[in-house]
Design a protein that fits this description.
The chain is an alpha+beta fold. Helix content is 28%, strand content 15%. It has 2 domains: 107 residues, Arc Repressor Mutant, subunit A (Orthogonal Bundle), CATH 1.10.10; 149 residues, 2-Layer Sandwich (Double Stranded RNA Binding Domain), CATH 3.30.160. A hairpin with a 5-residue loop joins strand 5 and strand 6.
Length: 288
């Protein structure tokens, strides 16, 4: 942070993306957060206790009236782009913070971190990435329920249905019988948090995702995707149809957490899921 404060000088006439309760202090922390976690890891930056975003902002799936809602990915990326453009104009001979400049268009270009469309990073399979929050244990050494990273507790990993492509995607596998729990805002009792159970069931046309609130156990939500299921839950919890709710289903399930993903990869037949990114890479190397 000290280096950024020393090197960073904003032009006074810089146009900015308006974010409530946002100041130059947040700009500096945003830069430090991106430097530490990467462009696109917005929820991780918010949760990082190294910074002070949690004092002012709250995640979109939490319900706290005394704090501002954490801006969406598009707004944060635009803000980052504008701040870096301001640095470029204020310091034309320095390029320490500039990531990439398109000389033809004279416009700052930032390479976005690949995500699944809801802010959940897609692994690149390359070495040199930042260290995971929690190492991947050997599946034979794990006792369930397993307390995973990201505030998720996994009760069952389930089984891999490798012969149906709908049970896997490029970034995740969806084992039949997978069960996890986490806490989130209640839609029954405003201002409180309750436990939600997330399950993956075998359906007639692919996986069925089910989320059940502990204070409304008789009325579970089901959908054809994890994101649709959790979005429906959080829309009701927010009780505000005027604002779009953005939530990553795989993250809420825990499927995209580094250690959970690693455990699922150790399940029998996991290496036979053709859609999954790691298996595609192995297929390519074999073909060569």
């Amino acid at each position: 942070m000290k280096d950024i404060k020393t090197e960073f000088k904003l032009a006074s006439t810089t146009p900015v993306t308006t974010i409530n309760n946002w100041s130059s202090a947040e700009d500096l922390q945003l830069l430090a957060g991106v430097s530490k976690h990467g462009v696109g890891a917005w929820e991780t930056i918010l949760a990082d206790a190294t910074f002070e975003f949690r004092k002012k902002f709250v995640s979109t799936y939490d319900h706290q009236k005394d704090k501002e809602e954490w801006p969406g990915p598009k707004i944060l990326f635009k803000r980052l782009e504008q701040v870096l453009e301001a640095y470029k104009k204020a310091n034309p001979r320095k390029g320490r913070i500039i990531l990439k400049v398109d000389s033809a268009k004279k416009k700052l270009v930032i390479k976005k971190k690949r995500t699944d469309g809801f802010g959940s990073p897609i692994p690149s399979g390359k070495s040199g990435s930042s260290a995971p929050k929690k190492p991947i244990p050997d599946i034979d050494d794990v006792d369930f329920p397993y307390r995973a990273s990201g505030g998720v507790t996994v009760f069952q990993l389930g089984r891999i249905k490798w012969d149906d492509p709908t049970y896997s995607s490029k970034s995740n596998m969806f084992p039949v019988g997978y069960v996890s729990e986490r806490t989130a805002a209640s839609y029954m009792n405003r201002g409180t948090r309750v436990t939600y159970r997330s399950e993956i069931l075998e359906g007639p046309q692919g996986p069925v995702f089910r989320v059940t609130a502990s204070d409304d156990a008789e009325n579970p939500y089901t959908a054809r995707s994890a994101t649709n299921c959790w979005t429906a839950v959080m829309v009701r919890a927010r009780n505000d149809t005027n604002k779009k709710v953005t939530v990553s289903g795989p993250k809420m399930y825990g499927l995209s957490e580094y250690d959970v993903r690693g455990l699922i990869e150790q399940l029998p037949n996991a290496d036979r899921c053709k859609n999954y990114w790691k298996n595609k890479k192995e297929d390519l190397s074999t073909a060569i």
